[in-house]
Hints:
Blueprint (H helix, E strand, L loop, with lengths): L2 E5 L2 E4 L4 E8 L7 E7 L6 E7 L5 E3 L7 E6 L4 E6 L8 E8 L11 E4 L3 E6 L1
Amino acid sequence: VVQLVESGGGSVQAGGSVQLTCVASGYTHSSGRMGWFRQAPGKEREGVAAIYTGGGSTFYVASVKGRFTISQDTAKNTVYLQMNSLKPEDTAMYYCAAGTTRGHPAGVYWVDYWGQGTQVTVSS
């Protein structure tokens, strides 16, 4: 059974930083993809960042480039999302995702497994 467990969410003021952590158990895809999505109330879930587990190349949605960094520790089956210079519009539930490399990383079709989500709230 694959489980993705997120942690690290919380409330922060604009300009602050938060690091999210996702620990994957039962998932050992050496050439797959892991990533982070977010969903704000009334909005669709959007891909924020992704990393290819085999080579380490990364993807970022335009709105977070230069502010967010995704990284992985393959030995620990863990993926991180370092979020800096946070803005109120970054407020959302953040979900860890794991799957194959099919499809665009910003879409949801490559995702086979989802975490339960962790809330990030940025106040102005």
